[in-house]
TrEMBL record:
Its EC number is 3.1.1.31. It comes from Cinchona calisaya. This is Probable 6-phosphogluconolactonase. GO terms for molecular function: 6-phosphogluconolactonase activity. It catalyses: 6-phospho-D-glucono-1,5-lactone + H2O = 6-phospho-D-gluconate + H(+). The keyword Hydrolase applies. The lineage of its organism: Eukaryota, Viridiplantae, Streptophyta, Embryophyta, Tracheophyta. Pfam families: Glucosamine_iso. InterPro entries: 6-phosphogluconolactonase_DevB (IPR005900), 6PGL (IPR039104), Glc/Gal-6P_isomerase (IPR006148), NagB/RpiA_transferase-like (IPR037171). Residues 15-243 form the Glucosamine/galactosamine-6-phosphate isomerase domain. The keyword Membrane does not apply. Keywords: Hydrolase. Pathway: Carbohydrate degradation; pentose phosphate pathway; D-ribulose 5-phosphate from D-glucose 6-phosphate (oxidative stage): step 2/3.
Length: 253
């Protein structure tokens, strides 16, 4: 079932498995669309449950049909830990997705895990994005002046956080930086870096992928209660924001 509001569409499915199947089809369609239009596909990954929900993309027919050679991968947020640490969003994505498809190594942009502090890791990630802009690998939005990705795949926590932008933390209000840092994330591990809202909201397409009953209150507040002021409610896209919900996550709408 679909419900449209402005440049937002809300898709509700019976089960998490139905969400996973629809998500694979949606990503593959956008991959084809962007590669036809501009010859490349810049994708931003979250951590968390998203990676498992992307599982059908690594299977037939998508594994063979998608032109992985044109993909580039970035991270919406990352924990400041070594890339082989169990808490690393890169490791999660590598184990569950990237190791199973053939995206060129040079197109994968994890954080530099040799940086010792969240400040320096955020600074470094932003600088590397500025270099990609200078090389015309990443375009800037004509509207915001921030980097414009083709597709961001965004998860949400039960507290309404997206990326590492949490309620009751100032990072969600950052307006200038492309990448910022947090040292006291309420969800462990505490040191993280994260894209900021002006950058997130410059994306052409965004998929909010939210499943499970423990997300039902946050989904209700974000979609139906503007006063809740949760970070998830601040997500918008320059093109279309598409919510993928299962029955449990949508149960209080
Ligand atoms: O800590 C994080 O949490 C969010 C939400 O994760 P989920 O397990 O509730 O899906 C995730 O999107 C983010 O990338 C991650 O660092």
């Amino acid at each position: 079932m679909a419900c449209e509001k402005g440049n937002k569409i809300i898709l509700k499915f019976d089960t998490e498995d139905d969400v996973a199947k629809a998500l694979a089809k949606y990503i593959a369609l956008h991959s084809g669309r962007f590669i036809t239009e501009k010859g490349s596909f810049n994708v931003v990954l979250s951590g968390g449950t998203l990676i498992d929900t992307m599982r059908y993309l690594t299977q037939t027919p998508y594994k063979e049909l998608v032109d992985w050679s044109k993909w580039s991968i970035f991270w919406l947020d990352e924990r400041v830990v070594p890339l082989d640490h169990k808490d690393s969003n890169y490791k999660l994505a590598w184990d569950g997705f990237l190791s199973k498809v053939s995206i060129p190594e040079g197109h994968i942009y994890p954080i530099n895990d040799k940086k010792s502090s969240p400040e320096s890791a955020a600074e470094d990630y932003e600088t590397r994005h500025r270099i990609l802009v200078d090389k015309n690998i990443l375009p800037l939005s004509d509207i915001s002046g921030f980097p414009k990705f083709d597709l961001m795949l965004v998860g949400m926590g039960p507290d309404g956080h997206v990326a590492s932008l949490f309620p009751n933390r100032p990072q969600r209000f950052e307006k200038e930086r492309w990448v910022t840092y947090i040292k006291d994330s309420p969800k462990p591990p505490p040191p993280r870096i994260t894209y900021t809202f002006p950058l997130i909201n410059s994306s052409t397409e965004i998929a909010m992928v939210v499943t499970g009953a423990e997300l039902a209150n946050a989904v209700k507040d974000v979609l139906n209660n503007p006063k809740s002021n949760l970070p998830g409610a601040e997500v918008s896209a320059e093109g279309l924001l598409t919510w993928f919900l299962d029955k449990d996550a949508a149960s209080k709408l």
